[in-house]
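The records we work with from here on pair a chain with its fold. These numbers are not coordinates but entries in a learned vocabulary of local backbone shapes. To see the layout at work, look at the sequence and tokens printed below:
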Amino acid sequence: MAEREGLYMISVAAKLAGMHPQTLRLYEQKKLICPDRSTGSTRLYSDEDIERLKYIQELTRDLGINLAGVRMILDLDLSMNELREKIGEMEKDFKETQKEMEEEIERVRKSFKKEIVLMPKGKLMEIKSRWS
């Protein structure tokens, strides 16, 4: 939770991210970053925001991706994280269901053992001869 708390004013955040404060304003305008606001409407950037800014900088400066491409990548990252979360939940549900099924199979097996009656060999031969 502390990673998401707005701690840094724009000048400090810009230094930490290695960019100009005007770039942070541009990224906010393009909705690439959404800093918290103080009661006086001062932008407050979190540690998570700083990491996001560094990621945006890596995409634009190092990989040459334009801001529209960055927007798409950020959206895809968000979708992938949501899908990973859903997959994790589904795996958990699957494991719980699998365990329940294994327990039910074992319960049924045990109930059949109670119903099986062993018959003396001679009696079995007698029954077979009646059917022949």
Remarks:
- The two ends are 79 Å apart (CA to CA).
- The beta strands are 36-37, 43-44.
- The first strand starts at residue 36 and ends at 37.
- The chain has a mean pLDDT of 89.
